[in-house]
User: Which sequence fits this backbone?
């Protein structure tokens, strides 16, 4: 019989092509108590690095009820600095403990010369960055013993040094690393507004079969240093324009598990669940149209 | 069509970006030459990142040190947090541990001022943070000692819950912490009233902070260090009644997880 006690049972509960919600601390109790009808949950890996404590126990309970995805925000995979092996070891511990069906990180850098900025900083879309990021992802995948999904960023500056379109960059990374992609539709919308990303071209550049998860979130419009920017702050409902782009993404990439992210000014659980149900409705509508 | 040549190495771009993040908004090196967006837009974009990195760090400290923050107010706390960040920038991708050096730094920063006690309060809050991250083990009942012959009790070693922490302070930090747990105005605490000893543990959804007598605190420290009961009593300089009181509290709060040599529970 395959899979003894030493073999992690990955994907014990596969993530379905439905909408899920990001699990945040204010909802730990309500989620387990109310057991809302959502397809799956996603947790930030770094919030569950501990040996124990209330958060870890809450995720232990929640993963018994819902398929789980672990979404990392701290590896800074594209950093030119060496990979933080201690951080990676903790990711592996979390993966072994919680047995998520999906594990994801970002196409970003975060630390240089030993200093960590704890943010998702943009990479130049260069051949060097493709090779570097792909090598890091291969290293992480080998260490974890499983595939990563890599998420496109929202960005507020671009690089003159970039040689590739963002979609071409991610496609090349996915091909060379053998990783999947996590498409954040809100990030694409924000980049279109801030940096002039051509979203249709972006979708067309991505290898459709590599996109295994979609993120949806809200953003805000803010005047910063006299310039108006869209800020990917995950602090409000998904706006209409992002819902529309989501429908386009579903037509392009098929029925993909979709997550509602809401990290700031976190609303009551039922608000998140309603957003997930809205995503489910669009998912089913588009799927029927496509069929 | 030929692709534009990459003129900067990845490491070089990241260092340039980092320098821009660390510069003051609007200062000359604040807008990196590599930005493809207009200068004004690039300055705005860098402000977003600059604000994020600062805000995320502050938030991590605010979550770890809510009582210190409450005592000094938001504005002063953020000033302290930013000063601390300059001395102890984040070195890890997990901001949870960004505040590990804050108590010692704060103690040095405020030495000789009327806020000299804040470092001690921060130390208690850091111990609470450690408690929140520790695993919980099944606890033993005091009944496990019932079958131990009297002449073997002194040789018993106790293993304590991994989340149990203790500290001694020159200041009444337990009283300050306790007075600042509700939503209303904190009751005033006489900061000159002398030392307090406390312990904390997390066995359910919250950390519980206990006040201990000085002898109990010394005894707990000796037990946590691995001393057998008899030796711990000697080290702590306490009598049998203090031992009985401490054991009654520790078993009652489910803080004892193992006794060796093993006894029947």
Assistant:
């Amino acid at each position: 019989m395959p899979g003894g006690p030493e073999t992690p049972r990955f994907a014990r509960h596969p993530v379905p092509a439905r909408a899920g919600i990001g699990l945040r601390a204010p909802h730990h109790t309500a989620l387990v108590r109310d057991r809302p009808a959502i397809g799956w949950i996603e947790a930030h890996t770094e919030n569950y690095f501990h040996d124990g404590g209330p958060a870890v126990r809450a995720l232990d309970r929640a993963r018994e009820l819902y398929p789980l995805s672990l979404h990392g925000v701290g590896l800074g995979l594209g950093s030119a600095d060496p990979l933080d092996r201690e951080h990676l070891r903790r990711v592996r511990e979390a993966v072994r403990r919680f047995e998520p069906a999906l594990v994801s990180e970002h196409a970003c850098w975060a630390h240089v010369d030993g200093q960590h900025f704890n943010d998702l900083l943009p990479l130049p879309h260069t051949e060097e960055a493709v090779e570097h990021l792909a090598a890091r992802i291969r290293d992480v995948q080998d260490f974890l013993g499983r595939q990563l999904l890599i998420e496109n960023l929202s960005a507020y500056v671009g690089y003159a040094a970039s040689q590739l379109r963002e979609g071409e960059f991610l496609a090349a990374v996915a091909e060379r690393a053998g990783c999947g992609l996590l498409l954040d539709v809100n990030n694409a919308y924000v980049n279109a507004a801030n940096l002039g990303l051509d979203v249709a071209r972006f979708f067309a550049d991505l290898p459709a079969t590599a996109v295994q998860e979609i993120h949806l979130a809200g953003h805000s419009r803010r005047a910063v240093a006299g310039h108006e920017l869209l800020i990917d702050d995950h602090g409000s409902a998904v706006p209409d324009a992002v819902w529309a782009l989501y429908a386009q993404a579903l037509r392009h990439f098929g029925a993909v598990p979709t997550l509602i992210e809401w990290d700031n000014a976190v609303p009551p659980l039922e608000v998140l669940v309603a957003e997930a149900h809205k995503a489910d409705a669009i998912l089913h509508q588009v799927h029927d149209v496509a069929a | 069509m030929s692709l534009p040549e990459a003129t900067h190495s990845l490491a070089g771009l990241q260092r340039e970006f980092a320098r821009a993040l660390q510069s003051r908004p609007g200062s000359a090196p604040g807008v990196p030459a590599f930005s493809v967006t207009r200068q004004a837009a690039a300055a705005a974009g860098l402000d977003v990142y600059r604000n994020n990195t600062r805000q995320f760090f502050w938030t991590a400290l605010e979550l770890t040190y809510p009582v210190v923050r409450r005592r000094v107010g938001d504005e002063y706390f953020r000033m302290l947090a930013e000063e601390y960040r300059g001395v102890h920038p984040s070195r890890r991708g997990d901001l949870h541990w960004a505040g590990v050096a804050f108590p010692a730094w704060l103690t040095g920063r405020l030495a000789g001022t009327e806020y000299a006690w804040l470092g001690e309060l921060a130390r208690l809050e850091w111990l609470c943070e450690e408690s929140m991250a520790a695993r919980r083990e099944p606890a033993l009942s005091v009944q496990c000692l019932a079958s131990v012959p009297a002449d073997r009790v002194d040789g018993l070693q106790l293993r304590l819950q991994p989340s149990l922490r203790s500290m001694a302070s020159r200041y009444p930090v337990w009283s300050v912490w306790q007075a600042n747990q509700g939503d209303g105005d904190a009751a005033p605490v006489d900061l000159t009233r002398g030392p307090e000893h406390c312990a904390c543990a997390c066995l359910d959804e919250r950390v519980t902070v206990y006040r201990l007598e000085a002898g109990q605190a010394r005894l707990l420290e000796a037990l946590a260090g691995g001393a057998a009961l008899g030796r711990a009593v000697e080290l702590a300089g306490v009598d049998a009644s203090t031992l009985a009181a401490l054991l009654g509290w520790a078993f009652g709060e489910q803080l004892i997880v193992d006794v060796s040599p093993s006894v029947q529970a």
Observations:
- Residues 1-9 of chain A have pLDDT under 50 and may be disordered.
- Chain A has one domain: 19-290.
